[in-house]
Write a structure and sequence with these properties.
two-stranded antiparallel sheet, alpha/beta, transferase, NadD/NMNAT
């Protein structure tokens, strides 16, 4: 099984996340894609952010009906700080029949050498690096010294170009806080959930 792992806060999930996952699934012949929400505190500074359980709920609503998509609550169940290397190794141990792929944006690749245990990450999963349509190819020389030549060749074979879509979770939170529409930015079921839970709203926008 070719299993893609897509980590993030998903606070909230939006169409940009879903399109990225679908492009990677199709381009790299993935059998499954697991959305892996990170554990984060329910409140940060003065913002009203979603709890871990609410983010999981929204992910389930967003991917409903897609047979290849699922949600992994591994990091949510662990709580606290989770590191990608530990998570991927755990998934690999629990799914020995799977070849793991790790979905990441080209912007994340630039910072990848500074991540905790990047060599362990590259050993556990093949990164699928996604760049925006029309943007230059990422500089994979950043991985020199972190991975063997044969592994690098596999990484270079799993690049994905994604259509440009200007969406971000922070923008959706901001629009909710100001009482603006988020229609067509996230699945309708997620939009209705946000309304029912009154998430990201400020008193002035109630």
């Amino acid at each position: 099984m070719r299993l893609g792992i897509f980590g993030g806060s998903f606070d909230p999930v939006h169409y940009g996340h879903l399109l990225l996952a679908e492009n990677c699934r199709e381009a790299c012949n993935l059998d499954r894609v697991w959305f892996l929400p990170a554990f984060t505190p329910p409140h940060k500074q003065n913002q009203r952010l979603a709890t871990a359980n609410q983010r999981v709920d929204m992910l389930h609503l967003a991917i409903a009906g897609h047979s290849a998509f699922d949600v992994s609550t591994l990091e949510i169940e662990r709580g606290g700080v989770n590191y990608t290397a530990d998570t991927l190794e755990t998934i690999a141990q629990q799914n020995p029949e799977a070849t793991l792929f790790f979905l990441m944006g080209a912007d994340s690749l630039a910072e990848f050498p500074t991540w905790r245990d990047p060599q362990r990450i590259l050993a556990a999963a093949i990164p699928i690096v996604v760049r925006r349509s029309g943007s230059p190819e990422p500089d994979f020389r950043l991985l020199d010294g972190l991975v063997e030549k044969s592994r690098m060749e596999l990484i270079l074979q799993h690049q994905v170009e994604s259509p440009l879509i200007e969406l971000s979770s922070s923008d959706l939170r901001d629009r909710r806080a100001r009482g603006l529409s988020i229609r067509y930015r996230t699945p309708r079921a997620v939009e209705k959930y946000l309304q029912a839970q009154r998430l990201y709203r400020t008193p002035d926008a109630e």
